[in-house]
Amino acid sequence: MPILKEEPSIFPATLLDMAAAESKRQWWVAYAKARQEKSLGRDLFSREIPFYLPLIKQRRVVRGRKQTSFMPLFGGYVFLYADEAERIKTLATNRISRLLTVDDAAGLVRDLQQIRTLIASDAPLTIERRLVPGQKVRVKVGPFMGLEGTVLERRGEMRLLVSVNFLQQGASVEIEDFQLEKLD
Fold first, then answer.
1. CA 94, CA 32: separation in Å to the nearest integer?
2. Which of 157, 30, 170 lies closest to 95, judged by CA?
3. Residue 34 needs a FRET pair 20 to 30 A away by CA distance; which of 78, 79, 121, 145 works?
4. What is the distance between the terminal CA atoms of the chain, rounded to a whole angstrom?
């Protein structure tokens, strides 16, 4: 049972599907102050400013009791899709230490859509940092069909790494090699 109910992690729910339609807005990556990601998400939700904060379930045993909480996949980062006025309102929350501009918006949206698909699968994810180049692949069968990523090997198991290149971070999931096809 979760300690707290899951909070909105994306606003509006169709943000990653409609983001290319509006031209007056642009993508920003907000680097939140320490442990302020979810509070920033709540502030953006209440102000109706479009954002995406990838959250994953984290289960642990504390004093013999199982607890589930929702933690940011990328610690410190919230993805913001805002115009200039909304950007200023976001800075006024006093929860941001840096605001980074995104040059390749289409690439970021594609990466975030893939991360959203991984999270929605409810498969156990491992957070991967400081990505290194590896074999690029596409999943050809199974629940992750169509996702593109990099093959990693961790403790003798094959994993598919789906990354957000802008952050040089990503998440990986265990996968079998027969499910993958090599990209050229």
1. 9
2. 30
3. 121
4. 45
DSSP secondary structure of 79-123: EEEE-HHHHHHHHTTS-EEEEEE-S-HHHHHHHHHHHHHHHHTT-
Residue given tokens 């502030």 in the structure block = 43
pLDDT higher than 60, residue 103: yes
Residue range 106-162, pLDDT digits in tens: 999 999 999 999 999 988 888 776 654 578 899 988 899 999 999 888 887 889 999
Q: What is the dihedral of CA 165, 171, 176, 182, to 10 degrees?
A: 0
The pTM of the full predicted model, rounded to 2 decimals, is: 0.83
pLDDT surpassing 70 at residue 88: yes
